[in-house]
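Input chain follows. Return structure tokens only.
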Amino acid sequence: MRNRTIGALLLGAGLWLATSATDAVTAAGADTAAGTSAVSGDATVADTTTADPFLWLEQVNDPRAMDWVKAENAKTTDILEKDGRYATLYQAALRLAQAKDRIPEPGILGGEIYNLWQDADHVHGLWRRTSLADYQLPDSHWQPVLDLDALSAAEKANWFWAGLQCAQPAEQDCMLQLSDGGEDAVTAREFDLHSGTFVAGGFALPKGKQDLGWQGRDALLVSREWSPGELTSSGYPYVVKRLARGQALAAATEIYRGDPADVGVSPITLHDGAGHELALIARYLTFFESEYRLVEPRGLKRLALPRKVDMVGLLDNQLIVETRQDWRTGDGEQIIAQGSVVAVDVPRLRAAPDRLRPTVIYAPEARKAFAEARVTHGRLLVTELDNVRGRASVYTPHGRGQWSRQALPFPDNVSIKIGSADLHSDRAFVEVTGFLTPASLWLVDLQDGAPRLVKSLPPRFDASHLAVEQLEAVSKDGTHVPYFIVHANDIRRDGSTPLILEAYGGFQISETPGYSADLGKLWLERGGAYALANIRGGGEFGPAWHEAGLKTKRQRIYDDFAAVGEDLIARGFTTSAHLGIRGGSNGGLLMGVEFNQRPDLWSAVDIQVPLLDMLRYEQIDAGSSWVGEYGSVRVPEERAFLASISPYHNLRADAHYPLPLIWTTSKDDRVGPQHARKFAAKMASLGLPYLFYEVIEGGHAAGATLEEEASTNALEYTYFSRQLGLP
């Protein structure tokens, strides 16, 4: 668990794991053509603004910029929405998005099941609850808790759900977080689960990028912009204060102050089923490196943890931690391999925070890597990737230093994702899915290790004629790169099949098989094929697979992706004329680089909410938080590399590019719409054809409402159909 708010807001995981499975040309010539400064050893950040004619598009809500957006949207929709395929695709996408027989995602609170539901009647969402027994019925009987549409109307606001944190152990007093139109910045208000109402005079935090943790039920630890400008260069808070019930924000007591150069600072409060509480302050030095301090009545104590670790939870008064680097413990006699999960005894941690003695619970193996873990009342549920296939096990503590393991009998060749886990029992929900396997939800009692099927998504497309293969391509440096391909059983290996290739390639995020109703209905069922590449930069094979593509080593990631494309062609699945690619966020950067470096290899490039100006990315929204991934223009070697791959700076008027679809969202306050806007504007200035679209709402996603999401999906598949020749 990376910190609940900052970790969720940092570039990687959010959108592309949650909604869908879904970059060397030298820079000198391109920079000169664009009028920007050439790379030099003493280059500074200020150089990135030199003669950039499209800086005005970085003013997100400026009327001139929004007029440009609306004009570009009109041009693109005039082309794509008038295509004969769009209306059919939109109606199909909308039916899928609004289907009533979706699996309502369960959250366990106070022994009951809570769910946020969106459909045609609940555009913003209806938060509701039912009993565990009733939830398991085919038709559950839900009790409304909070109607976000009604709340938005009453307050003349545009509220969307952004999360919830409840005080333990009662799970009655909760801080409910609301987002304006899907932004990462949130407003937080205290909500009483029993009465289903906001608490009059309760805790209330005005809008901002912020994080909090309960201390008992009468105090919060909060990181936010307490005074104007108290934000890091990444746009996150670095000051943590304790706020007591009934206390004004201005009277909160400061307990820790980081540095404006940090990525951010956040409180973390952990609880276990036995009632133990552990309060920590996480100081994020980079996206991947952090310091942790124990919050004690007499002050803070620095913990002797490696810088690359993630908190998993608290269990049996033991702190559970995932290691992302090799860890030589305090006595120097034990080296714990990166990618392990360990337990640290809390009483010893409090007594000797500088001399920790961890116990290994899970250790990685060749081609096997830790995926995620959740704690319940008395057990730890762990999933791993076995050559990118999901596995799950239960680990039970037996006194300090002793753990037993029991494998759970889930199907093979699928992805396994942990949903809600209950601190007050040993129950947890697990989602099982595959490319052709509709998502199913299982309730697992970790005491007996018996998963029980609770709900299944009905098939959304005809998969009877489809097959899945896992193949490997050989990258430029000889590394074997696995990928999945979904295609017709009787596919002709004559290169005639329209095929979409997708990848992410960053932030140790793993791309695994998953059931996409939109992909299946709008593409596969119509005769298209799909491939998902497990390129370096991800976490499919642990931290080392990610670290192989960090900073100036990043060209490996782009070589991996191109190698998969070439392999698909060499095997006869498709040809360049029928091969399209897509990726979002960091994957959008991947698309931009591939667009520049290998325009000959693709006929469609779908660039989603991307980073594209890699010389100014640190100055745009949360960009500076990703220096640990990409490097910094302040470091000459890293700046030179960024200039060599920056899609914005490497566009050339004389290149033969495929027609790209570049889309973003106005409300994205994480990556920001600035990259996509400037890229499209520069293409226009060079006389290059492109399609640009900006969703006005939706944050770092395809849209805040189901209609917006359906429209974006239909635009994408209309674009791919036109470019790749799918009727």
